[in-house]
Amino acid sequence: MSVYLLVLFLALLLHDGKAKLESQGCNSADAERAAEEAVEQINRDKTDGYILALNRLYDFSHTSNQETGSSVYNLTIDVLETQCHTISRKPWKQCEVRGIGDIPVYGECQVSVQVDAQVKLESYSCALHEVAATAVVHVCPDCPTADNLNEPVIKET
Fold first, then answer.
1. Would you list the DSSP string of the chain?
2. Does the pLDDT of residue 29 top 70, yes or no?
3. pLDDT: is 81 or 66 the higher one?
4. Do residues 34 and 119 lie in contact, with contact meaning Cβ atoms separated by under 8 Å?
5. Which of 53, 51, 69, 72 minimizes the C-alpha distance to 61?
6. Per-chain mean pLDDT for the chain
7. Is the backbone of residue 49 left (phi > 0), alpha (psi -120 to 50) or beta?
8. Whole-model pTM?
9. Rounded Cα distance, 43 and 84, in Å
10. What confidence tens digit (pLDDT) does each residue in 82-128 have?
11. Residues 78 and 55 sit within 8 Å (Cβ to Cβ)
12. Residue 66 and residue 59: Cα distance in Å, rounded?
């Protein structure tokens, strides 16, 4: 503990007694803008399923390119499936997240975006999962559940 206090004291001395706070973080306006725009672009890229909504941004790294004036953000975001199908092409902010009775789907996306005047999605990888049927039944005993939504009978229905 005393080593930690010594390091903190030395850091304050090196900065003339003024602590400098970094404005970059998961709650920064730039990170939120990058995450929101990344979800929009992921949804534009989707050809099937439902539109994804941003749930939470929880991992964030940022590198700046001084020559081009752009920045690259690497984000890890949680997403939730909405009730809007991708065919609708609605913005995710206009769609309601699927409720517990609709067999909700959640996931995590690893995203890399370049930000200058615009936000450009460079790469992404999303892993989506259905909420377990046992969790749905626990919260909503009368809600229908399916073991496999890809079964032909369920798709047809």
1. -HHHHHHHHHHHHHTTT-------STTSHHHHHHHHHHHHHHHHH--SSEEEEEEEEEEEEEEEETTTTEEEEEEEEEEEEEEEEGGG---GGGSPBP-GGG--EEEEEEEEEEESSSEEEEEEEEEEEEPPHHHHHHH-TTS---S-TTSHHHHH-
2. yes
3. 81
4. yes
5. 72
6. 76
7. left
8. 0.68
9. 11
10. 999 999 999 999 999 988 767 788 999 999 999 888 889 999 999 99
11. yes
12. 23
**What pLDDT does residue 44 have?**
94
Mean pLDDT of 139-146: 65
What is the per-residue pLDDT for 78? 94
Report d(CA 127, CA 115) in Å as an integer: 24
pLDDT at 155: 62
